[in-house]
């Protein structure tokens, strides 16, 4: 039996992500929680003829506790999105507190659940989640993930004219580092099956992967950021975690993890000087089984990208850790 929970389920990402989870035959129970509108979203989705039993909760009547109790997978897209002119870090002021509060409840009511953090800035909200879980004495680094799958999905899509595959997802295009601007590092030298990016297209392609989010924010013109592609990416990652937890072998996805707590992570922590980093992770019965180091043999161009990434990430991580340490529990 798999119980999945979406926190922020009535939002732009939450609704289509809940739809995909409702349609997924691997999910037996689906609980939707938001501060507004979840009864309506749950009623609507409940008419879909699929496996999952669906329930919707609001904060009243112990809604969060009821939603989380018995959860195996908790996905968090709760929080405000960007408007044109904002960076993801501008969301910290509001979203840091939202994520901290929700993870405190997860620590209390679903301490063994896999936690998938979508809320931005991911580079800081995941360190916040880790600190909250540590303080509650329930931190299992193998079960906490920052969802960076949208960067991978974009990289697969934007390079499709060179990979030549019919289904863009059939090419593996690793994207590592963090989830904002220059902290996003596509490693085109590590694609498989192997293909070449023409030298005169390299910079533009790297830039498009790094700033793909801005492309959508601009196009939506004040109405928010990526929601549908994020729901696709969030579902892809949640499904991977669920399949691996049921025993499927060989599933690898890049994700932002606490390196010292995942096998193989120490080597990457040493190379980058960072505790949190997105890298291809082998998923298994207990979550993140192995962090795979793909830093060896990167090109000179990629080394430069990594330098900028590490500089930016360091500050984002520290900001999250400091916030969690210095704000009282809810
Ligand atoms: N990791 C990634 O790759 C991506 C992350 N994002 C981030 O995802 C977040 C959500 O984006 P959207 O769905 O577009 O925003 P949205 O505003 O449409 O939805 C957010 C939902 O969160 C709910 N919410 C607020 N506080 C809450 C709380 N304490 N408990 C439960 N629910 C709460 C709101 O009521 C709303 O329904 C943003 O922070 C955005 O930046 C967006 C795209 C990609
Ligand atoms: O750009 C944003 O603010 C939303 C996001 O994280 C993305 O689309 O990658």
Automatic annotation (TrEMBL):
InterPro entries: L-lactate/malate_DH, Lactate/malate_DH_C, Lactate/malate_DH_N, Lactate_DH/Glyco_Ohase_4_C, Malate_DH_type1, NAD(P)-bd_dom_sf
Enzyme class: oxidoreductase
Record-linked Pfam families: Ldh_1_C (PF02866), Ldh_1_N (PF00056)
Record GO cellular component, one term: cytosol
Entry keyword annotation includes NAD: yes
Residues involved in substrate binding: 82, 88, 120, 154
GO molecular function: L-malate dehydrogenase (NAD+) activity
Lactate/malate dehydrogenase N-terminal domain sequence ranges: 3-146
Keyword list, A-Z: NAD, Oxidoreductase, Tricarboxylic acid cycle
GO biological process: carboxylic acid metabolic process; tricarboxylic acid cycle
UniProt-listed SUPFAM superfamilies: LDH C-terminal domain-like (SSF56327), NAD(P)-binding Rossmann-fold domains (SSF51735)
Catalytic reactions on record: (S)-malate + NAD(+) = oxaloacetate + NADH + H(+)
Active site per database record: 179 (proton acceptor)
EC number: 1.1.1.37
Lactate/malate dehydrogenase C-terminal domain span: 148-323
Entry annotated with the keyword NAD: yes
Amino acids binding NAD(+): 8-14, 34, 95, 118-120, 230
Subunit structure: Homodimer.
Family, per entry: Belongs to the LDH/MDH superfamily. MDH type 1 family.
Protein known as: malate dehydrogenase
């Amino acid at each position: 039996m798999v119980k999945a929970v979406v926190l922020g389920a009535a939002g732009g990402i939450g609704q289509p992500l809940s739809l995909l989870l409702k349609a997924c035959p691997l999910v037996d129970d689906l609980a939707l929680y938001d501060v507004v509108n979840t009864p309506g979203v749950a009623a609507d989705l409940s008419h879909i003829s699929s496996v999952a039993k669906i329930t919707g909760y609001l904060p009243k009547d112990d809604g969060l506790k009821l939603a989380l109790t018995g959860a195996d997978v908790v996905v968090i897209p709760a929080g405000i999105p960007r408007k044109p002119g904002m960076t993801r870090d501008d969301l910290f002021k509001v979203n840091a507190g939202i994520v901290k509060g929700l993870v405190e409840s997860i620590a209390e009511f679903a301490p063994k659940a896999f936690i998938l953090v979508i809320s931005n800035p991911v580079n800081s909200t995941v360190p916040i989640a880790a600190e909250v879980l540590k303080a509650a004495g329930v931190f299992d680094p193998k079960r906490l993930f920052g969802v960076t799958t949208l960067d991978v999905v974009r990289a697969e899509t934007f390079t499709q004219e060179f990979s030549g595959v019919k289904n863009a997802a059939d090419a593996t295009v690793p994207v590592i580092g963090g989830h904002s601007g220059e902290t996003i590092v596509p490693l085109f030298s590590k694609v498989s099956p192997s293909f070449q990016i023409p030298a005169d297209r390299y910079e533009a392609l790297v830039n498009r992967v790094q700033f793909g989010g801005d492309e959508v924010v601009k196009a939506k013109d004040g109405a928010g950021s990526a929601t549908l592609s994020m729901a696709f990416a969030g579902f892809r990652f949640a499904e991977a975690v669920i399949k691996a937890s049921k025993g499927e072998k060989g599933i690898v996805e890049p994700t932002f993890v606490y390196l010292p707590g995942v096998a193989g992570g120490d080597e990457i922590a040493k190379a980058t000087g960072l505790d949190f980093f997105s890298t291809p992770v082998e998923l298994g019965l207990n979550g993140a089984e192995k962090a795979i180091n793909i830093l060896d043999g990167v090109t000179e161009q990629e080394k430069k990208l990594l330098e900028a990434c590490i500089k930016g990430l360091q500050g984002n991580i520290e900001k999250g850790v400091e916030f969690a340490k210095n704000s009282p529990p809810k």
